[in-house]
Amino acid sequence: MKAAKIISIILAVVMVASIAAYFVTRPEGETLPIIPSSDPGIYSYEESAYTQSTSLSVKGTNGEIFMPSTIDGVYYTANLKNEIRFYEYASGAFNAFGGETKTIKTKISATYEKIPVSVSYIEKDGKTFGCGVFTSDMDSSVDVYAFAFVELINKPKGYGDGLLLLADFNKNEFYKVNKTYSDIYNFNLAKGTASLYVSNNTRLVDENGSFRQDWSMLTNEFINGMGDSKYFFSNRNYSDDKRMDVMVLSNAVKPDIAIKGILGSWLIKDEHGTHYLKQSDKGFSNVLYSGDKETVLGDFEGDYFGDYLRSGNYLLNKKSLVVTDLLVGSTKTLKDIDLSNATVFSVSPDGNKAVIAFAGEKNENGAMIQTVIYCNLAYETAEPAIFSEPLLFAESCDFAWLDNSSVMSVRPLDGTGSKVGSVVYGF
């Protein structure tokens, strides 16, 4: 039996015969209790192995969930009341941003509606970053959209000078680090006006009555990877949500397709060309596009979305335990751990460390157990740190790296699960 399963069973029997209430926390703060047993006496949050770990520090003591901005060392907190605050992280601590926080009101056009949003933003080191939240409680005249999150950033190099305003209408992504923005706006900070970059003339409507959200998309990862290109990605030409076309940004009814049918949304442009994935007969391929020619750098068997997890340029095969650096082709193999049910894979910026996490599963006593594994990829023989117990992390939130040795996630701040906040694990 694999190591993670053995540890899970031992901890489940010794520590967790039951737990009074497991939690599911939604962005609006609603907590849904699940009562697996009437005996609350065996599991102790305060005495759990994870809580007592000397490598764990609590940063969100007041329930703060810190999210990274596009400015190095700057983080923000946000809630559904559109209360936005900015922080700087240094020497292991989050401190209130020392500069001025400004606010600008704007309206974004979406499905022929005008959605009002108040954007809080800061400027530092020649960069601008801001965000704002809209909910239907703020303006009942907006019929189609109950939620919107907007992010204000500097345009990527290929887009030219100025600012972008990006909109995400998926409330489930509120606390995701790498959101999928479905509408792209050119933003005039002096006038507070947002104008759509991509034509909606042939854009279809989904079952909710709003424009399709897969028409013109960007993520922060995609923006950082496309170099000096003027790209966005779109699913408009496919019946599934696995393949994407990389398109050249314009207001044309049919934008030019730069790369057709990539798998997922991973794309990196470097001195060798443009890297991405494509489906193949037996699985998928790692492709380099250069000089108007595609070159296959490596082939992978299996289902990309079911058998693999990706973090940046690193691809984890959950069956073989091989981690591949897609840019250089190098591989590392993890120690013998059952990763078949893993849902999270997050690698440090230097590629030397990783977190692997499993969504909660009920054990034989009805207690909900999560598993988090911290791995040192630089030393394949190093023993991973494995925790399997309740209340390890909030599954609606991502893991985010503060530096090469410190990773931040969100977990409950006590055994009731009524309040969650950011914690940092250093290794």
Task: Fill in the keyword field for this structure.
single chain, 427 residues, mainly beta, seven-stranded antiparallel β-sheet, disordered N terminus
Q: In brief, what are we looking at here?
A:
The protein has a seven-stranded antiparallel β-sheet, with no helix packed on it. The protein has a four-stranded antiparallel β-sheet with strand order 1-32-31-30, with no helix packed on it. It is mainly beta and 427 residues long.
Which strands sit side by side, in order, in the main sheet? 6-7-8-9-10-12-13
Which range best describes the helical content: under 10%, 10-25%, 25-40%, 40-55%, 55-70% or over 70%?
A: under 10%
Number of strands: 32
Average pLDDT value? 90
Give the percentage of residues in beta strands: 35-45%
How does the major sheet shape up?
Answer: 7 strands, antiparallel
> Tally the helices: what do you get?
3
Structural class: mainly beta
**Cα separation of the termini:** 27 Å
